[in-house]
Amino acid sequence: MNLNYRTGLLTRAFINLDHLTHNMNLLKELAGNRPLWPAIKANGYGHGAEIIGRHLIRLGYKTLCVAHVPEAIDLVEAGLKATFVVLSATLPENSEYVVAYGCEIVVCTLEMVESLARAASKAGEKVALHLKVDTGMGRIGIRPDQVIEFLEKCGDFPEVYVKGIMSHFPRADEADKAFSQKQIHMFRQVIKASESYGIEVYHFANSAAIFDLPEACFDAARPGISIYGLKPSLTMSNPRVNDLKPVLELKTRITFLKEVPAGTGLSYGHTFYTEKPSLIATIPLGYGDGISRRLSNQLDLLVGGVRCPQVGRICMDQCLVDVTALRGRVKLGDEVVIVGRQGKEEVTVDELAEKLGTINYEIVTHIAERIPRIVV
User: Fold this and answer.
1) Would you call 126 a catalytic residue per the annotation?
2) 248-375, what's its fold?
3) Among residues 62, 153, 258, 268, which one is catalytic?
């Protein structure tokens, strides 16, 4: 038998690559045609890192950002031909992998520089580093006043070279840009102080900054959430953020239908009781797929172009939908949209995030790997 078992999975994430292309063109324009280094960390923000990465490479993007060394290794071994910049701090034990897989890596400790130099010397290679400067994120990075001393010490290791200097915004997605402007001022001072050290690229801007702080794009920008057609926040001032097109749709199908009388308790704990005779659909979607249990009794799903409430507690692998409004028009196998458009109705990632009290990033990155990503 020549069967692909994944065809039997009824819940799927559909990835629209035309929308990805549109978003990249928009971001490139807003960044003044400076190089973009798209972030495809966390499995491409839940969209499928290999799918997203391959398409970006086809579009001509040569540098891609990941969070951790194993993410870069997986993509290299999958055959993606790109330069992978590892954004998160790592430990010396990963140095040999960085060298072996040709990664460029963000550093902020001399211990890491020394370890990379030893690994590079052993392999007969030279490693490109990106020095992280903390201008206000408070996460990783050296202080601006430590940059020159750090660069001087890096000069003691011929096996490495500081290709880039970078920083990151914690508040660029807020309406008040005062703090971000202070960061930009500090970073400009770093540029001025380090310009004689042969730095090839200064990079700072994230998605929010590309829209609202284009002066922070410098030599390259690192868009993340926006390449997937999702807004960095709901307080962006640039109206062109509304031109983004969501790349992902999440859909499933009805696997069971049942009529139940008024007063019927549904799912674990009977947190929902029907108020009238109701038609209830079961769908193969649960918190094991990344749909938070805390969304129970809060979701609207689309069936037949109609918003239908999810009812009862969301289980690990299944949940229930009240389709009483579609009685006589709904059947087994009908499509159910969790995120996306159906007819004139649409459910957005931002809608789910608002109900859960979180951000759109968390919704998409929580979509489980067991859900196949299908290229549209």
Assistant:
1) no
2) Lyase, Ornithine Decarboxylase; Chain A, domain 1 (2.40.37)
3) 268
